[in-house]
Design goal:
233 residues; alpha+beta; Peptide Methionine Sulfoxide Reductase, Chain A; six-stranded mixed beta sheet; two-stranded antiparallel sheet; EC 1.8.4.11; L-methionine:thioredoxin-disulfide S-oxidoreductase activity; oxidoreductase; peptide-methionine (S)-S-oxide reductase activity; Met_Sox_Rdtase_MsrA_dom
Length: 233
């Protein structure tokens, strides 16, 4: 009986430890801070670009990047007071940036309107400055526009989603002019894809707890819901 109780206690302690590690892990641990300028990945001719924010960019990027018609999705920082920021600065919540995703796509295959509709289903647009366990203005729900036409479309789709009552609570997604966009550090790019391909030993150097608890459930649901719109593997 005592051994059984001790075993249960050890299991509980282990689970608590995993949760604590998942939400206290710093991706800068063991990595040298990169100070070199970072420039956006070049977009193919004829492509269009959409920049959105919906919480941790690992989650949004990993889903958008799987859609047929999307050339690539790039994690970055947008909407802040000045360019050239890094992860630590944005995480402070003092720069005004949001963790954002730059989606470069072929408008002949997938429309910007459809990308926006999908965006409103892959994160919670009703929680102000929060997505799940992540809190702060850097985790706000936002759409960044580069032209009056993009702004008009963003407002139209946001209103469409609100009227359809896909979410119980009011939508708080902000629509902001795109400014001071900076790609995130290389180690953030395709983070969940790296996690899926990593060995157990490699995952020890990653935020495996966060990926397993937060990102992976979203990705699994996304792949099921949009199976007919995904790239062929």
């Amino acid at each position: 009986m005592v051994n059984m109780l001790m075993s249960k206690a050890l299991v509980i302690i282990g689970l608590v430890a995993v949760v604590v590690m998942a939400f206290s892990w710093n991706p800068m641990n063991g990595l040298q801070k990169v100070s070199a300028p970072r420039t956006p990945k070049p977009a193919p001719a004829g492509s269009k670009t959409l920049v959105v924010a919906g919480g941790c960019f690992w989650c949004v990027e990993s889903q958008m990047d799987q859609l047929r018609g999307v050339y690539f999705a790039e994690s970055g920082y947008a909407g802040g007071q000045h360019p050239g920021v890094d992860y630590e600065e944005v995480c402070s919540g003092q720069t005004g940036h949001a963790e954002a995703v730059r989606v470069v796509f072929d408008p002949k295959v997938i429309s910007e309107a459809d990308l926006l509709r999908i965006f409103f289903t892959i994160h919670n647009p009703t929680t102000l400055n929060q997505q799940g366990p992540d809190h702060g203005t850097q985790y706000r729900s936002a759409i960044f526009y580069s032209s009056p036409e993009e702004k008009e479309l963003a407002i139209k789709i946001r209103d469409e989603i609100a009227k359809a009552k896909l979410w119980k609570n009011p939508i708080v997604t902000s629509i902001e002019p795109l400014k001071n966009y900076t790609p995130a550090e290389e180690y953030h790019q395709n983070y969940f894809e790296k996690y899926e391909k990593a060995t157990d030993a490699q995952r020890m150097t990653m935020n495996a707890g966060y990926c397993a608890a937060i990102v992976e459930p979203h990705v699994i649901e996304f792949r099921h819901k949009f199976a007919d719109r995904l790239k062929k593997q």
